[in-house]
Design goal:
The protein has about 210 residues and is mainly alpha-helical. The protein has one domain: Arp2/3 complex 21 kDa subunit ARPC3. Helix 2 runs antiparallel to helix 3, helix 3 runs antiparallel to helix 4 and helix 4 packs antiparallel against helix 6.
């Protein structure tokens, strides 16, 4: 683990990221919507502090929610992957502008949708399961005549997971974008990837 990614301020942000994930996920669970909003904290910490801090936030978040929903533990690799992907995009400067930020939701949706479908499919014995995406997947399956062909069912699972995750990640990324824009320069300058979000003019003023 790179020491530069784990300074004192980073360690301070890790529990905040976990709390943000928990609050977002809990609100959506109570509203019973076909989205998640449980990775906002992971992406923010990954974008500001690097891959390892993002991974830690994602892992801890899923461990905590697994206390009441044990199957969430199996989806921990997804949340951890979001932290790594967020750090990668942050280093490329993707989150500095709105349009590239919004387009990045496609990458997050691919991770969450396709890989998530594989986890769901395996976890529930090659069936749809009863998770959030079942709200979309089951009606779609019935609309197609409820085919029992496994390849068709798996395709429907991927389609449903990707659709839900694309909506979720579009909302999540927009929220993350405005949160990242709101941080003051002095705060950003103390974080491993914070300087990425400081303009040359602001850096000159700091100097």
């Amino acid at each position: 683990m790179a020491k530069k990614e784990m300074n004192k301020l980073t360690w301070f942000l890790v529990p905040i990221g976990v709390a943000i994930n928990f609050i977002g996920g809990t609100i959506i669970l109570l509203l019973k919507l076909p989205i998640y909003l449980d990775s906002i904290g992971t992406i923010i910490v990954g974008a500001l502090c690097g891959a390892w801090p993002g991974v830690i936030v994602g892992l801890i978040s899923n461990i905590l929610t697994a206390i009441t929903s044990p199957n969430n533990l199996f989806y921990a690799p997804l949340n951890m992957a979001f932290g790594v992907f967020a750090a990668y995009l942050s280093k490329k400067g993707v989150f500095k502008k709105f349009v590239p930020t919004l387009l990045s939701s496609l990458g997050f949706a691919f991770i969450g949708g396709v890989i998530g479908a594989l986890i769901t499919w395996t976890l529930y014995g090659f069936d749809f399961g009863s998770g959030t995406t079942a709200i979309v997947v089951l009606p779609l399956w019935k609309a197609l005549g409820s085919p029992e062909v496994q390849s068709v069912k798996f395709f429907i699972q991927i389609l449903g997971e990707f659709a839900c995750d694309l909506l979720d990640k579009a909302i999540t990324i927009i929220v993350c974008y405005f949160i990242l824009k709101a941080f003051p320069t002095r705060f950003l300058s103390k974080l491993p990837l914070g300087p990425v979000y400081i303009s040359d003019e602001e850096k000159a003023l700091e100097d």
